[in-house]
Amino acid sequence: MTFILALLVILGGLSAVVFGKYIQCLRHLRRISRRMKELRSGHGNGYFLIRTSNASINELAEELNLLSGYLRNITNRTERLERAQRQIMTNIAHDLRTPLTSLSGYAELLKTDPDRDEVITEKYIDIIFTKSQMLEALIRNFFDWAKLEADDVAPNLQKLNITITLQEVVATYFQDFEKIGVSPVLDFPAYSVFAWADPAGMERILGNLITNSIRYGHDGGIHGIKVWEEQEKVWIEVWDCGKGIDPEDLSFIFDRLYMGEASRHMTSHGSGLGLSITKKLVEKQGGEIFVRSVPYEKTSFSFYLLKTMHSGLDLN
Fold first, then answer.
1. CA–CA dist 297, 184 (Å, integer)
2. What is the pLDDT of residues 52-106, one digit of tens each?
3. How many domains does the chain have?
4. Are residues 61 and 175 in the same domain?
5. Intra-chain end-to-end CA distance of the chain, in Å
6. Global pTM exceeds 0.85
7. SS3 (DSSP) at 227
8. Is the CB of residue 91 less than 8 Å from the CB of residue 83?
C-alpha cells in the first residue's frame, strides 16, 4: 500500500511537471503567435527574446528573429527605393523643364517677332537646336539609367583594342578641346592594349568622362588621358587640373540620388545620372571606377577592365 501511494505521489509530481512544461510551451507559443501577427501587420520591431529549456521553441524563436530582421531590411530598402523614386522624378521634372522652357520661349520669339533680321533668326534657330540636343541627351540618360537599374542590359563583352578605341573617341572631341583652347595630354602605350569590354559601353564611359572633364575642369587649362597595364588589369585615367571636387562630395559623386538642388549648385565635377551610368557600365564589364581630387592640382577618374592575353602588339 505504501508503495502504491509513493508511486501515485511520484506520478502526480511528474504529471505536474509535464503539465507545467505544457503550460509554459503554450505561453511561449502564444507569444510567438502574437509576434507573427505583429510582423504580418508591419508593426514588429526589435529582438524577440524567449528563455526556455525547449530547444525546438528556442530554435523557432531564433528563426522568428531572423525573419524579423529580414523583413525589417526589406522594409528599409523599400522605403529607400521609394524615396529614390520620388527624388528621381523630381530631378526628371527639373531637368526637363529647363530646356523645354527655353525651347518654348525661343519658339515664341520666332512666332511673334516678324521684324527680326536674318542673323537673329539664325541665332534663335541655333539655340533651339542646341536645347533640343540637350533634351534628347537628358531623355537618353534617364532611359539608359532605368535599363541599367533594372538589369535589362547585358554587356557584349569581347576582346577590344583599348588603345585604338581611345584614340578614336578622343578624336571625336577634338573640336570640344579646341573650343576651350586645350590640347589634351595623351599618355598611351606604343603598342595595342586589349581588354574585355563592350565597345558601345566603352565609348559611352569614355564620352561621359571626357565631357565631364571638359565641362567642369576647363578652368585648369590642362587635360589628360592615360592608359597603362598593371598585372591582369588595363587602367584608364581621365584627368584635369581644374577646380576639382569638394572632399565632402567625393563619396557621393557616383550616387544616382546625389542630384538635388544642393549638388546642382555645387562647384564639382558634376552629378546626377551621367556618372552613375558610367559607374554601372564599368561594373557590368567587370571593372571598378575611382575618383580622386585635389583642386587645381589634379582631379582624376580612373577605372580598370580585365586584360586579355593579346596585349603588346606594336601599333606601327
1. 16
2. 666 666 676 777 777 777 777 777 778 877 776 777 777 777 777 777 888 888 8
3. 3
4. no
5. 113
6. no
7. strand
8. no
Residues 41 and 98 in one domain: no
In whole angstroms, give the CA distance from residue 160 to residue 196.
Answer: 6
Show the domain range for 187.
Answer: 158-314
Is residue 80 a part of any domain in this protein? Answer: no
Q: Residue 307 carries which DSSP code?
A: B
Is residue 226 classed as helix, strand or coil in its secondary structure?
strand
Cell of 91: 530631378
Torsion of CA 96, 100, 101, 104, to 10 degrees: -170
Same domain, 63 and 96: no
Kindly state whether residue 34 falls inside one of the protein's structural domains: yes
How far is 241 from 223, CA to CA, in rounded Å?
A: 7
Residue 123: helix, strand or coil by DSSP? helix
pLDDT tens per residue across span 109-120: 787 876 777 888
The Cα angle at residue 236 between residues 310 and 152, in degrees rounded to 5:
85
Question: Facing residues of 226 across strands?
Answer: 187, 237
Residue 280 in grid coordinates: 554601372
Contact 235, 304 (CB under 8 A): yes
